[in-house]
Amino acid sequence: MTTETTPAGPFAYAPAPESRAVVDIAPSYGLFIDGEFTESSGQDRAKTLSPATEEVLAEYTQANAEDVDRAVKAARKAFEKWSALPGAERAKYLFRIARIIQERSRELAVLETLDNGKPIRETRDADLPLVAAHFFYYAGWADKLDHAGYGRNPRPLGVAGQVIPWNFPLLMLAWKIAPALATGNTVVLKPAETTPLSALFFADICRQAGLPRGVVNIVTGDGRTGEALVSHPGVDKVAFTGSTAVGKAIARRIAGTDKRVTLELGGKGANIVFDDAPVDQAVEGIVNGIFFNQGQVCCAGSRLLVQESIQDELLDSLKRRLATLRLGDPLDKNTDIGAINSAEQLARITALADTGEAEGAERWSAPCELPSAGYWFAPTLFTGVTQAHTVARDEIFGPVLSVLSFRTPDEAVAKANNSQYGLSAGIWTEKGSRMLAVASKLRAGVVWANTFNKFDPTSPFGGYKESGFGREGGRHGLEAYLAPATPKGER
Amino acid sequence: MSTVEQNRLSVFKTYKLYVGGKFPRSESGRVYEVTDSKGKWLANAPLSSRKDARDAVVAARKAFGGWSGATAYNRGQILYRVAEMLEGRREQFVREVAEAEGLSKSKASAQVDAAIDRWVWYAGWTDKIAQVMGGANPVAGPFFNLSTPEPTGVVAVLAPQESSFLGLVSVIAPVIATGNTAVVIAGEKNPLPALSLGEVLATSDLPGGVVNILSGRTGEIAAPLAAHQDVNGIDLTGAGDELAKELEIAAADNLKRVLRPGSAEYTADPGTHRMTAFLETKTVWHPTGALGASGSSY
Amino acid sequence: MPIAPASALSEVTASDQALRRFLHGLPGVDPVGLEARAASLGTRSIKAEAKAYAIDLAISMIDLTTLEGADTPGKVRALAAKAVRPDPTDRTSPATAAVCVYPDMVETAKAALNGADVKVASVATAFPAGRASLEVKLADTRDAVAAGADEIDMVIDRGAFLAGRYLKVYEEILAVKEASGAARLKVIFETGELSTYDNIRRASWLGMLAGADFIKTSTGKVAVNATPANTLLMLEAVRDFRAQTGTQIGVKPAGGIRTSKDAIKFLVLVNETAGADWLDNHWFRFGASSLLNDLLMQRQKLATGRYSGPDYVTVD
């Protein structure tokens, strides 16, 4: 497929593609409801593409409101038995799922790379290990909920309607399904319209694990399906990861109901580099912060705040490093930068980058040829950016880094916090007291100090302000799926 | 002889708002009549406007940095001081609660005592909540990883309409115990204990602006607060179902943390949910050196 | 050959205090991040013609080494023969860069190489501990050079370094450099004894300021020798030194690199850190012995398509 558009030199790496043969994608998929693949009551179909080549991978079903209703009813029916199952038994199902994911991790990594466009290096080394770990972690909670700090014998909420994004399709599924099932809820999950395949494969994993019918239901489709799901009166709990705009719409939609909600939304993370930073690791952290998954990460470090005294030096290092990034075939094991997930997302990134240029920020990309087919965007830096620039405020959700400078720690904190968002932030300094002081002042749910974009099932994740509410991961992640331990009479 | 005393004309109290540590009248210049449960006039209370709400948010925001940055121990000392001050003005509050809620003196006393004890309960929570809600996370890698709860910010509190003092304290104390600052809308019909509480808070070492108390029409004051972009959370306890829904929709504009109304029984164990409703969890990662055999691991 | 610190940085070696301030002012190293980067580069998949290129490059970069008390002229002659013609069955195999021996074996090695394009490197300065007076170290060095050594692998005084006496270490390197004359000087830090990455970065700059032609990880005589992380760190140092002074310095990881897979990982580190300018045995070496046979077996596999075995390469 695409030619490797990477740094040339005497030591040019030969293509090292991971084999596609390990994945068997069906030409067409139905909806996974009540333990089996079923047809929609309607005729709506959609196609999912490989964003690296625009090749059609499969056709899937655009679920309508009737289909969603059927799925919610199946989940409701399954809830009674599933929630009554001893925790230790629920745990064993989740452990089975975790193991099967490990066994099939190569297949799932290749599938995810095909459907999403992200490099196999990431699906293999980040997504899939984290997916399995997440199921392992929450499996262990299922029979220990009495000890989780949410009261004695905490109760599940019922049916969880879960809507996940396309940037980490299977990992976001794991973040949603694992805690929901561990706590005794049942699930109707809608994967993103551009990346439905790994969720449909997960349905097969549920089958292999012998999970009771209706405990997990997968309905595919676009925003209409998602809206039908979160609005369904039979849904007790809404969990959404995606854009802030949709998050707000969901919050409005469920106002005045008894539905509980957690929202994991956008971000504009500040990655703050002080003059005493471990520079080489900071450069890696900046690269990882904004170019991991092509920058299509809600907690991306999309704003680099660098102390003015080291700005030039750091930018030189950063540019030199960017010149070594390898962009191309996502299935190639040496690819660092894959494809943008969709034409729509590429258009958005392109438009925002153009705005950056139009507003006078200086644009720079490493020399890099883009493949002719598929959706691609070269890793890009904007320098000379101020707080007033659009590229410093709006979430771009792409491989575009805005570079701003600061003079003092106070200024760094003020600029970092000057955002409607509050999901992530980074701090690079070798001085412990400065790290702790700045970390405590940043209004962000995750602060990475001398590292970036690290995830772990034990570590709670979620935002301040318009980045959403609720936490996923860790003991904290259970709370969203348990009825609150409140005094009698209060709900 | 004694008739002189009996006939002494008492001095009425002018009830005022409590905003930014000061006692202003409503910017609107308007008041409304507050009566006891039998309809007898008790006092005129300020009828707060949107602008009073706006001013209160400014005061609460200004106070947030200092209050959230104070040590938990210090916040506990101050909340305990509130209890001490209330104890000294117990009789006044018993009278006000009895009038406001139509209670016998003994029932009103029980309410006030419980309210004082509630301050003591939350005073003790300030330096424990982080240990209960936070902790180290054993991540699978060479990282120290710590989650700690932090206050959400400025919280609008719709105090309950029935329980004019115990209910009021039960919704204010958990919000500020953890470091939030509050804009409180007193119960519409019975705002006097709330306005008097402001006088107690003002003399309890509580920094001005940490609690701001407004009286007036709940719906009128709550609407701008729910829509306010610099308010981070809203407790809808004092809202009816219809108003609560309206406010929750408005609150979605900047994704405020919303505590929905519930039929509260304030004499029960308060639990922690009123605190956790307005807490964020911040997780900080930092590398550890792997102390392995690599020889160069620090 | 004039021996002077890179002029741009001459002031920093003016006094012990100035040198300490400079070395301690270098950016810190976060160990977890450094090791993660090294591990990440270790996942590069080098296939087909890239692999063939890397294997031949690695062979050409080996300082084929024997540093044993039991070394004899016979052993050294065998080593020299193998260095010149690593694979007797395949003359297309490149020669190694050098043989590396103790000073008393230099003459033997030189004679055995008989004019072939393989250098003789000699460890000196009371290798491996370096615990001797400067006079002894210099005599050791002159001895090796007089016997025909093309390259001198010296050890720094780790005791002085760890005691913070940086100027002493610096001056000793200067002196050995002078005693080495035309021979290229490799400065061994014994990174396993320096113990921290910050120390390795400081030692790298100290060595480069003092005129090292190569900076080298280790002697191969302690528990921890070359690792991807410490080599990556030293590659960053030579990269930054050239950017600052214009002077290019070589890097030599030594000890513990035994397989082709390992060697290729190191070459990836070179390629993506210091850059292609270092992909040459003038600028990068492997201090190794058993590595060569593994590279040769891989080379045979690429040529024939079948896996080779130890009977098809020569024992040393």
TrEMBL record, chain A:
GO terms for molecular function: oxidoreductase activity, acting on the aldehyde or oxo group of donors, NAD or NADP as acceptor. PROSITE patterns: ALDEHYDE_DEHYDR_CYS. Pfam families: Aldedh. InterPro entries: Ald_DH/histidinol_DH (IPR016161), Ald_DH_C (IPR016163), Ald_DH_CS_CYS (IPR016160), Ald_DH_N (IPR016162), Aldehyde_DH_dom (IPR015590). Keywords: Oxidoreductase. Residues 38-483 form the Aldehyde dehydrogenase domain. Belongs to the aldehyde dehydrogenase family. This is Aldehyde dehydrogenase. It comes from Streptomyces inusitatus.
Automatic annotation (TrEMBL), chain B:
SUPFAM superfamilies: ALDH-like. It comes from the Bacteria. Residues 27-258 form the Aldehyde dehydrogenase domain. Signal peptide: none annotated. GO terms for molecular function: oxidoreductase activity. Keywords: Oxidoreductase. Pfam families: Aldedh. This is Aldehyde dehydrogenase. It comes from Streptomyces inusitatus.
UniProtKB/TrEMBL annotation, chain C:
Keywords: Lyase, Schiff base. Pathway: Carbohydrate degradation; 2-deoxy-D-ribose 1-phosphate degradation; D-glyceraldehyde 3-phosphate and acetaldehyde from 2-deoxy-alpha-D-ribose 1-phosphate: step 2/2. It is an enzyme of class 4 (lyase). This is Deoxyribose-phosphate aldolase. NCBIfam families: deoC. SUPFAM superfamilies: Aldolase. One of its GO terms (cellular component) is cytoplasm. It holds the Pfam family DeoC. Its EC number is 4.1.2.4. One of its GO terms (molecular function) is deoxyribose-phosphate aldolase activity. PANTHER family: DEOXYRIBOSE-PHOSPHATE ALDOLASE. Belongs to the DeoC/FbaB aldolase family. DeoC type 2 subfamily. GO terms for biological process: carbohydrate catabolic process; deoxyribonucleotide catabolic process. It catalyses: 2-deoxy-D-ribose 5-phosphate = D-glyceraldehyde 3-phosphate + acetaldehyde.
